[in-house]
Amino acid sequence: MLMDSVLRTPSHKPAFRVAAIYTIIGALWVLLSDRLLVAMVSDVHTIVALESYKGWIFVMLTGLLIYYLVDTQSTINAKYQEQLRERDDELRLTFQNAPTAIITFDLCGRFLSLNQSACDLFGYSEDELRGTSYKEITYEEDMKEGDQLLAQCARGDLKTYTFENRYIHKDGHIIHGRVHNGTVYGTDGRPSILVAQVEDLTKRRKAEQEAREHRERLAHVDRVSLLGEMAAGIAHEINQPLTAISNYSDAARRRVLSNNADPEKLLSSLEKVSEQAHRAGEVIRRLRALVKKGTSQRECADINDLVRDTVNLAAVDARIHDVSIDVDIRAAAPTVFVDNIQIQQVILNLLRNAIDATEDEPNPNRTVRAVIEIVDEELVEVSVEDSGVGITEDSAEKLFSPFFTTKKAGMGMGLSISHSIINAHGGHLWFSRNPERGTTFHFTLPLEEGTPHD
Ligand SMILES: Nc1ncnc2c1ncn2[C@@H]1O[C@H](COP(=O)(O)OP(=O)(O)OP(=O)(O)O)[C@@H](O)[C@H]1O
Ligand SMILES: [Mg+2]
After folding, report:
1. Is residue 454 predicted with pLDDT exceeding 60?
2. Does ligand 1 have an atom closer than 6 angstroms to the CB of 446?
3. Does 389 sit in the ligand 1 pocket, CB within 6 Å?
């Protein structure tokens, strides 16, 4: 409707038309009136008498003509004004009732007008915001980007743009918005005002945040349960350095008691005690990191280090189950931007599953292999290969569903959580059946820029 209403803008044409008609009639009158009089009236006295009225007749005729022309033009103008008013009402109504927040502001970023949705979104009335800068309600960290885009618009370098911005509601809560801005140009062809539409993403961002927290809580439960399963191996891993500490300190004590303590030998024993204490401390540090409940924090990491670290943690547990773990690194320092703990958790889950699947196999060389390779320019792939029981058709369908397990003591959460962790990191987790025996689980992660490719 709004777009269909055609408005004719006022121009100089009507004035020109009136002047032209007046000039033509005036010229014709001057040129023809005398001849017409002579042709129509033969009596000289009558001609002279009529000549004196000719001027009055001209004035009357042109007066009538001008009245007619101006009246017609006034009707057109009134109609135009009426159309303009209707169009204005339509626009105002559309602006006010639009379900999206619409704002107009000047090139310095000062609010000119806000519709009802915008007022509802920010919690202020139009009067409270009109004339103030958009910075008053913008989240501080997001101001720089808004400023730069506004400056580009004011220079006329940018006509439309879309960006995400956070605002602060009158009651203090943060509003997430996607802003679509467009520049309106004046009659001089230069930018005059900006019209912004703000899409409210707050609910979506909140739901994403809740899903993330939910995933983190589940992941934490899974990590604690994983470590519970590995308790025997972990106890062994810590017990070894503790036994060594006990032996070295006994030896040192004996030396001191026998009164022939060679300071060099004593020092060497103490150094070994300290070394072993560090070793035990390192295991505990890794464990604490895994058990710690914290919000997801991503950082750049070398995936080779993450796999090596995790294999160290799982190796003793594997040995107890008579399985060895090989690591095959085929990529030089692949850097990924990840939550280290969560990715270690995925690797640990896959290693644990592979160990479980392999331990009852008759094969004397029970081995699990972790391979790291760069598959294309943007992805690194980690695969955990076993020669275990394999996966039946029936299990394959439910493998990644929560609580699916074929194990007596299993929770059935490992693969489901690993799947959501990898998805949240922009990767993919899947499995393939090995040609001879067993299964390989693979996952990919996006590589950070600057990782060398061979
Ligand atoms: N490498 C594998 N070889 C064979 N079957 C596997 C393998 N990995 C997983 N599975 C099957 O998938 C099921 C689900 O694995 P998932 O890791 O989700 O749970 P779980 O290991 O049973 O329990 P938990 O929650 O303790 O990890 C397993 O019970 C097992 O049947
Ligand atoms: Mg598992």
Report:
1. no
2. no
3. yes
